[in-house]
Amino acid sequence: MDFPDDLYYTDDHEWLRVEEDGSTALVGITDFAQRELGDIVFVELEPVDSEMAQDDVFGTVEAVKTVSELYMPVGGTIVAHNEALEASPEQVNDDPYGEGWMVRIELDDPDELDDLMDAEAYAEMVA
């Protein structure tokens, strides 16, 4: 399994990548999570402009056999959805850290990143 070093991870199996501007980030689910879920058939997300606290549910992902909630890694405002997932939710399986991202958020408090795991800690958790 792949756990890129430039991401932050949660114990609920979400990842977060801070973008170059330092104030926005992409959020998705990890390679481990998509493998555990199986074939993803639908992704439902909270609306753009939704203000979310850390650990709030920002959506659900539906696989063939289960539905799983998605938890916000840090507080922020959803500023964009990955619109491609509406027609092709399988991108979460195919490329969880790239084309399978779910939401772009504007960070409320960058200090909350300190609550997240790095790749090494996450890999140890799922081992």
Structural features, described:
With 127 residues, the protein is an alpha+beta fold. The protein has a single domain, classed as OB fold (Dihydrolipoamide Acetyltransferase, E2P), CATH 2.40.50. It is 18% helix and 35% strand. It has helices at residues 31-37, 84-87, 91-94, 119-126; strands spanning 8-9, 14-18, 24-29, 40-45, 51-52, 57-63, 67-71, 76-81, 103-107. A six-stranded antiparallel β-sheet has the order 1-2-3-9-8-5. Strands 4-6-7 form a three-stranded antiparallel β-sheet. The longest helix has 8 residues, at 119-126. The model has no long low-confidence stretch (mean pLDDT 97).
Return Rg in Å. Answer: 13 Å
What is the helix/strand order?
Answer: EEEHEEEEEHHEH
- Fill in the CATH topology: OB fold (Dihydrolipoamide Acetyltransferase, E2P)
The description of the largest β-sheet is: 6 strands, antiparallel
CATH hierarchy: architecture? Beta Barrel
Estimate the helix proportion, in percent.
10-25%
CATH superfamily, please? Answer: RNA polymerase II/Efflux pump adaptor protein, barrel-sandwich hybrid domain
Tell me the total number of β-strands. 9
Q: How much beta, percentage-wise?
A: 25-35%
**Whole-number mean pLDDT:** 97
In what order do the strands lie side by side in the largest sheet? 1-2-3-9-8-5
Concise structural overview:
By secondary structure, this protein is of the alpha+beta class. It is 18% helix and 35% strand.
